[in-house]
Design brief:
The protein is mainly beta. It contains 9 helices and 55 strands. The longest helix has 34 residues, at 2-35. The radius of gyration is 34 Å and the shape is globular. It starts with a helix and ends with a strand.
């Protein structure tokens, strides 16, 4: 009875609830029914090229009615004739469309990539490009030349930033040097600081090009001062990709590349060698240069990207593998890497966690060494590659190769030199939005790099035979760890819609530790074991082995920083930043430094006197001044460090090593300082179809770090590190770009970048009559030094004799200090007769990009040029003269230089104009829309890229793009220390498939 009553009561409550729900539902529906008849609206959503967009969200404004486009971009939705539909899609500008009684709607959505480009990263935050008052260059990841990067993105970055010069070779194991706006120091760090995802001190080699969201370069001190002590050479901020909200997408990129030598030095053939009677004929015809080259070396690369998520959880992941075969034998590299970036929104967006982690491993085959190609040019071409008596063995010592000569192919093939690089880059950020205007965030970063090296020299190698032992083995291990922690608050507000204030204040901590170990042993009983049985070598037992270990002094940086950006009416802008930083590298007297900057901007185009000039969209004047520091030198110059020395003393009846200080310490040592003034002008005209910027700068570096002679006593060691001297950089940069053609089917954009820089050593800490000679040219002969540093000297000049011709006997004539023509003899080849000549720094550097798109086709062409600069050609100096009767020479020795019969001298005869125009990269691509044919594949893009396709130059050497970074630019190569690595053309066939 009670059970029945209970059921009856609940059923009555259910009936009443259903009636109440029906009344509420009808009340909600009734107004729409009375005033507008709901109907079905159908249509298609496409992009500006007419391609259907899949997954576009469509919402009826003010109602809980929505739809999503299908694979053909089509949709169907219920809406009243008077309703408005809102279309949203990631990467495109939101669009609203009024129904107006229509049953069919075809909507075109525009990409918002231009809007994204208006935001730049400036360090500890980002801001709209139109509000930036410093010199900042911003490149999006998709603007990098695809298919040309190779092992790193450095090659793809070539020419994209005016004032940034990148050095390196075609070798897959080459490291790249970066120099921004000239030389930043003499003895301390010269390159820009690399910041990856907010963590300073990163390694650009550890990144995949596909993972780059943007690269922002802080070029002047007013932009970089917030990074304090490490920003003297500029700052490169790299931001990796984060997943966007939406469906899971998978992208596969596969590439196959082939390389060939673009130009090689031409030496005499074996027939010509015999004809000119240069040396003994051993009966063979060996092209030593070609024997060192992998003709048409083939490499491959594979990358898989996975990205997607919802508004609360988004993940981006990458897996990649790369197998690069260098153009030179014994020069190969394999890479494996994985990255995962995550974004997690908590508490309805009040908090956010961002994580980034990447692991990369590079296996390096580095058997090719400096001097191989020198020997390939030098060797008698009639010497056989293999021993004629034992054809399976290389001709190493016994047949025609003697003295210091060696078989460069055998040197590679009888040697093991395997290295393994590993990097771990990781960081996590917690951001809390306290209010709509105030947020705080903290970041912890951990980076670890490790290097392992395994060497073995075969028992049949010339080194072993000459040394009298059966092989040598070497192991090396080094590890570096870097820990960083940063926390800062950001305040962003608008006052009366006229005043915009953005302020940042925070704290930073950075620490670096390193350690290393290596050991070497000789004379192994079994050759085939290689470097994996170190204890079996006999040299350890007789005390001739070697073992060493070291631990780097711990380096720490502690900083407090702040920045404030102010804008009034988007017309008048100002930025000020300050960083107080302490470094463990310096003594207690100068451990802390203050680095500050101030800059201002005036948007002239917003003034009344320009309002009537409708063709001007934006015109902004910028002024900036800032002070940054440089602590990029070795540890331990202010810390007392001890190490065992060579002395041994009797202690308790046995002999023990004594310990002593490693170096003199200087408690007054402090960082170098760079003070820079920059003035710039940004412009955009003709409906933003033509745009660009101009910058002019002066930077002065003071308190440069030098190792100078020290008095003994009271000091123990001969030298001590001090702050002495200064240098100056002056230059300008100009960028201009335009949307030249903009139609539905065809687009053409182009951009040009110009730069000019001059570096002057105003005071190098020596007297006006003192100097430092550099770049010593080795024997044969006694050429001497080709460069000199002294006060008030411009970087890039060569210190050589002035050529005055050749006498009737084929001997050199030079000008002496009084401009008299004299024979080049021991009496006249003296320093007093040398002079500064030429300049290795180009008068102008230019980069010119062209981008074409016709329907599904795209074509990109990148050109670069250095204009009016000099190269000192050591190749022609060492191999282009008839001065050696035993070894090979260039064909020019019996052509251009046929009348010269004298030993080489350092003269401007070997200076050549290096002006060139290079076709850096050409990429042709085709995108195939697969949505109509396969529901799992969105599109396929096929592309063919040619890198270093052609060089137009009068320079006679192999490659006019010599290294112009650093204090001694313009030398083609330094004999016996540089590898003379061939410059290559690289052709890449690739495919990108998006699922």
């Amino acid at each position: 009875m009670k059970k029945d009553t209970y059921i009856s009561i609940n059923m009555n409550q259910l009936h009443r609830g259903m009636i109440l729900y029906a009344i509420i539902f009808l009340a909600t529906l009734l107004p729409g029914t009375l005033f507008a008849q709901t109907g079905t609206i159908t249509g298609t959503v496409t992009d500006e090229q007419g391609e259907p967009l899949v997954g576009v969200n469509i919402v009826v404004n003010g109602e809980q009615v929505f739809a999503v486009t299908d694979l053909d971009g089509k949709f169907s939705i219920k809406a009243a004739p008077t309703a408005t539909l809102k279309f949203t899609y990631i990467g495109y500008t939101n669009k609203e469309e009024a129904v107006k009684g229509r049953k069919q709607l075809n909507v075109v959505m525009k990409e918002n990539s231009e809007l994204l480009k208006e935001v730049v990263v400036i360090g500890y935050g980002s801001m709209e490009k139109r509000a930036v008052t410093s010199s900042v260059a911003s490149i999006k990841g998709d603007e990098l030349n695809i298919g040309v990067g190779g092992a790193t993105i450095a090659t793809a970055l070539q020419g994209k930033v005016p004032g940034l010069v990148i050095s390196g070779t075609s070798s897959p194991n080459s490291s790249n040097g970066f120099q921004l706006r000239g030389v930043a120091s003499v003895n301390a760090s010269k390159g820009p600081l690399i910041v990856i995802d907010g963590i300073p001190g990163g390694d650009i080699r550890a990144l995949n090009q596909e993972d780059i969201e943007s690269i922002d370069v802080l070029k002047d001190a007013s932009a970089g001062a917030i990074y304090g002590t490490r920003a003297a050479g500029g700052v490169i901020l790299i931001t990796t990709k984060q997943a966007k909200e939406g469906k899971i997408t998978v992208t596969y990129t596969g590439e196959v590349s082939m390389e060939s030598v673009r130009k090689r030095p031409e030496v005499l053939t074996s027939d010509e060698f015999i004809e000119y009677g240069l040396g003994q004929d051993f009966g063979s015809d060996t092209d030593w240069y070609s024997e060192l080259v992998n003709n048409n070396a083939v490499s491959n690369r594979h990358v898989v990207n996975i990205s997607g998520g919802n508004k609360d959880v988004r993940l981006y992941a990458t897996l990649s593998t790369q197998n690069q075969k260098g153009i030179v034998i014994g020069d190969n590299r394999k890479d494996y890497s994985g990255r995962i970036n995550g974004t997690f929104n908590l508490f309805d967006g009040k908090a956010q966690i961002i994580t980034n982690a990447e692991y990369r491993e590079a296996e390096r085959d580095q058997r090719n060494s400096a001097g191989l190609f020198n020997m390939a040019l030098w060797l008698n071409p009639t010497i056989p590659l293999y021993n004629p008596e034992i054809p399976s063995e290389y001709n190493v010592n016994g047949y025609g190769i003697a003295g210091t000569d060696f078989n460069p192919v055998a040197d590679v093939m009888l040697r093991t030199n395997n290295g393994k690089d590993t990097w771990l880059l990781s960081n996590a950020t917690l951001k809390i939005n306290l209010t709509d205007e105030l947020s705080v965030q903290g970041t912890i970063g951990y980076q670890k790099s490790q290097w392992q090296l395994y060497k073995y020299v075969d028992a049949k190698h010339k080194e072993s035979l000459s040394g009298g032992y059966r092989g040598s083995a070497h192991h090396k291990f080094s590890k570096d760890e870097r820990l960083s922690a940063e926390a800062y608050a950001t305040y962003n507000t608008m006052i009366n819609d006229d005043h915009h204030i953005n302020a940042v204040a925070g704290y930073s901590f950075w620490q670096a530790d390193g350690e290393s170990f290596n050991m070497t042993n000789y004379d192994f009983p079994v050759n085939g074991v290689g470097p994996w049985d170190m204890s079996s070598g006999t040299y350890i037992t007789i005390g001739k082995g070697a073992m060493d270990s070291a631990k780097d002094p711990r380096e720490r940086l502690l900083s407090f920083f702040g920045r404030i950006n102010y804008s009034y009416l988007d017309r008048y802008m100002a930025t000020a930043s300050f960083r107080r930083e302490g470094s463990s590298k310096f003594g207690t007297n100068n451990r802390w430094g203050d680095f500050w900057a101030i800059s201002a901007g005036w948007r002239i185009s917003e003034e009344e006197f320009l309002k009537d000039l409708k063709f001007i969209n934006d015109l902004k004047l910028r002024l900036g001044y800032g002070v940054t520091g440089n602590n990029g030198f070795g540890n331990g110059y202010t810390t007392r460090m001890y190490k065992a020395d060579a002395s041994m003393w009797p202690t308790n009846g046995s002999w023990s090593y004594t310990y002593g200080s490693i170096r003199n310490i200087n408690p007054d040592l402090k960082w170098e300082q760079k003070a820079e003034f920059n003035v710039g002008l940004d412009f955009s005209v003709l409906d933003n179809r033509l745009y660009g910027k101009f910058d002019w700068y002066v930077r002065n570096v003071s308190d440069m770090l030098y190792s100078v002679n020290a008095p003994q006593p009271p000091m123990v060691h001969e030298t001590i590190m001090k702050n002495i001297g200064n240098l100056q950089n002056k230059g300008w940069e100009f960028e201009i770009g335009g949307d030249i053609v903009r139609t539905k089917d065809f687009n053409y954009t182009s951009s040009m970048r110009f730069s000019k820089n001059k570096t002057k050593l105003k005071n190098i800490g020596l007297g006006d009559k003192e100097f430092i000679d550099q770049v010593k040219f080795p024997s044969p002969g006694q050429p001497g030094y080709g460069a000199r540093m002294q006060n008030n000297m411009e970087i890039g000049q060569f210190f050589v004799y002035k050529h005055a011709g050749i006498d009737d006997n084929g001997k050199w004539l030079i000008y002496d200090k009084d401009n008299n023509v004299v024979p080049a003899t021991n009496e006249t080849l003296v320093t007093e007769n040398k002079r500064f000549m030429g300049n290795a720094i180009p008068k102008l550097t230019i980069a010119w990009d062209h981008n074409f798109r016709y329907k599904n086709w795209d074509l990109g062409i990148s050109l670069r040029s250095w204009i009016d600069f000099d190269i000192y050609s050591q190749i022609h100096m060492y191999y282009g003269l008839q001065t050696n009767t035993q070894n090979n020479v260039l064909k020019s020795a019996y052509g251009k230089n046929k009348n010269i019969h004298d030993e080489k001298i350092l003269s401007d005869y070997f200076l050549e104009d290096g002006t060139f125009l290079k076709i850096d990269a050409v990429t042709l691509g085709y995108r195939l829309n697969m949505k109509k044919y396969n529901k799992y594949v969105d599109n396929i893009r096929l592309y063919l890229t040619a890198r270093d396709l052609a060089v137009f130059t009068k320079y006679s050497g192999p490659n006019p793009e010599v290294n112009i970074n650093g204090l001694n630019p313009g030398f083609e190569y330094i004999k016996e220390t540089d590898s003379m690595y061939p410059q290559t053309m690289r052709f890449t066939l690739g495919a990108q498939i998006t699922f």
